[in-house]
Specification:
Layout: H1 2-9, H2 16-29, H3 42-68
């Protein structure tokens, strides 16, 4: 029973090697990005810099709080 189930589940999928080859051909055909442009999607840049901003602000607030409480 497991063999029949597996063959029906995988019927629509391509072999892994074929998927990898297609992806590599797709990436190779893509034109090179401009130097200095590190983010492929604008949303990725927003998420990265938003997270970076939150981490920095949190650390600064914690430092100020620790100095106020005279932890150092």
């Amino acid at each position: 029973m497991a063999r029949g189930l597996k063959s029906t589940m995988l019927r629509g999928f391509k072999p892994l090697e074929q998927q990898i080859a297609e992806r590599q051909a797709e990436v190779a055909a893509k034109p090179a990005k401009d130097p200095g442009n590190h983010f492929e999607h604008r949303t990725a840049a927003y998420v990265f810099f938003g997270t970076l901003f939150i981490v920095i602000v949190t650390h600064v607030i914690a430092l100020i709080w620790m100095m106020y409480k005279d932890v150092f």
